[in-house]
Amino acid sequence: MSSNPIDVAYLKQHGFPTIVDDMLNSVLAGKPADPLNFCIEYLQELKKKKEYMLLAHPTIPKATKPVIVCILDGWGESTIKDEYNAVHSAKTPTYDRLMSVEGRARTVLAHGHAVGLPTKDDMGNSEVGHNALGSGQVVDQGAKLVDNAIADKSMFSSTGWNHLKAAFPSNTLHLIGLLTKGGVHARMDQLLAMITSAVEQGCKKIRLHLLTDGRDVVDGTSVEYAAELAEFLSNIKDSDVKVASGGGRMHVTMDRYEADWNIVERGWKAHVLGDAPHKFSSFTEALATLKKTEGKHGSDQFLEPFVCVDTEGNPVGTIEDGDSVCIFNFRSDRMIQLSKAFEYEEFNAFDRTRFPKVNFLGMMQYDGDLKLPTNFLVPAPSITNVSGTYLCANGIKSFAVSETQKFGHVTFFWNGNKSGYIDTDMETYYEEPSDKVVFDEKPAMKAKEVTAIAVEAIKSGKFDMIRVNYANPDMVGHTGNLKATIDACEIVDDCLGELLKEVEAAGGRWLVTSDHGNADDMVQREKKTFAPQKHEDGTLVQCKSHTLAPVPVCIGGDIPSSLKFKPDASLSKTPGLANVTATYINLLGLSAPSLYEESLI
User: Fold this and answer.
1) Residue 473 to residues 280, 431, 470, 519: CA-CA distances in angstroms?
2) What is the pLDDT of residue 154?
3) Closest Cα to residue 396, out of 71, 69, 127?
4) Which parts of 357-481 fold into alpha helices (H)?
5) Checking DSSP bridges between strand 398-403 and strand 465-470, what pairing results, if any?
6) Which of 64, 174, 281, 333 is most buried per CB count within 10 Å?
7) 304 with 247: CB under 8 angstroms?
8) From CA 520, how far away is CA 287, in angstroms rounded?
């Protein structure tokens, strides 16, 4: 051993006495079987945490009470303020008060390039919005990644594509997904590119299992899309390509967060077994007939399941052993359950009747932690260094709550498309089960229950940061029911008022924002005049989709009186949702990571 004198000052400068004391205390408390290996792992973990350490903010004191981050899902701040803007039409005294405070209320972009989507005309959505809010970064998202893979043709020589090709010579390629131009879950041009390439590479038989939209696009566009598809297919000469089954996206196949497995079961029966209550000779006949149905099942998003049959009444496209099956949606949340049904040998969500041995893959890997599906065409966006990683490393205890419809957004998507906890010692997640109803029937949804849970978390004193998502404006907005959406906004505003009252009483701080627009415009508009569009019978053309509106960001609570938002002129570019992340980290009294989009304060 060296006889050199110990430089005590040096050791103190680098924190060694404290580190060694803490490590030895841990050894003594736990009495591990291999103390040396325990110490090595302890120091490795300490090094990892040091990489994520954040400095104290130079001017904002450390928060000693909880900081609330509240997301009003689907609550846009549109410049068109008429009776069809549910956010504007609703009585929202809490929101109006927040937006009236000079220097502490503003808007940011929540669509297009600001959230990693291909063009300025691409609507934002809850997934990319929560990715940005949780990570502080703008990353290329699903649609853009798929576009790139199609443009450079890498998709069609990928390992995933070669997995599909096993069925090309003598079996069937099945493509399942949403027929839409909305660009939120899927896009029609991407589907057509896949069909074209498959035919060029020798695929002899293709069957399409198509879900109609009416949610991200205008209700009724299914008929338009079906006509375009029929014309496209009429020009294919070297392959047998037909539509085999379908139904409305909210009634067939596309459930999420395991809210209602019956939806997925209907899809399985139609797509795989060729079993549905309606049988037609073609896709166009199916739409022409089902669109006449009275009530909600006449709208695109709720069409009942159907199969297409031949002249003898047999389904034209059941899924059989040896076939290849590809889901062509790029967005993950509404494809995970169907992926489980195709991929898991052990499965008890419903009786599959039979489980064909197929070559299955998704457009993307929909759940990175579950590695689901195993095979895919385009790698999902890789989002690392999310805010949760930094907060856990800095001893910030977090609580996240929403009802089922948005629970995955404040957890999975917030954490960079990763399932589960980042650190179970530092995080608590709470899911309030959503009602299994069409949400305009119950616009309150679970807002009051979510509020009560969040208030309990505030009062517990256990958490430094609490994030809350109110699903109502988005989920009710998607029904197209203006009155119900106004009711939803009023209910959420009332709950927001109660939430902020409690956090202020506790001496905490808060940030209120949204993830994208929706409830702010409930009608389709003329492009030049912005006047509401009307059907031939004079009724309004509903808007059930997201909008391109910016979203609000408001701050308050126990913060320095001088704390205001920066003027836009001092920001490097027009801010978007990713700028919100550094902002709420600052409200904790911490400086944000340098790799994040700059703070708004």
Assistant:
1) 37, 18, 8, 6
2) 96
3) 69
4) 387-393, 404-407, 447-460, 472-477
5) parallel
6) 174
7) yes
8) 30
Angle subtended at Cα 220 by Cα 219 and Cα 222, rounded to the nearest 5 degrees? 110
Q: Which tens digits make up the pLDDT trace of 34-93? A: 988 888 888 877 777 778 999 999 999 999 999 999 999 999 999 999 999 999 999 999
Alpha carbon separation from 316 to 109, 241, 264, 306 (Å, rounded):
46, 10, 21, 12
d(CA 115, CA 141): 8
Query: Which residue blocks in 467-512 are alpha helix, DSSP H?
Result: 472-477, 482-505
Q: Is 231 exposed, middle or buried (0-12, 13-18, 19+ CB in 10 A)?
A: exposed
Structure tokens at 503: 């956090």
The model's pLDDT over 109-162, given as tens digits with 9 standing for 90+, comes to 999 999 998 888 888 989 899 999 999 999 998 888 999 999 999 999 999 999
**What is the distance between the alpha carbons of residues 432 and 450, in angstroms, rounded to a whole number?**
7
Catalytic residues: 126
Quick count: other Cβ atoms within 10 Å of Cβ 565? Answer: 20
CB-based contact 68:510 (threshold 8 Å): yes
With beta carbons less than 8 A apart as the criterion, state whether 210 and 246 touch.
Answer: yes
pLDDT one-digit tens code per residue, 292-344? 999 999 999 999 999 999 999 999 999 999 999 999 999 888 999 999 999 99
CA distance 257 to 234: 38
Whole-angstrom CA distances from 48 to 27, 42, 392, 394 are: 19, 10, 12, 11
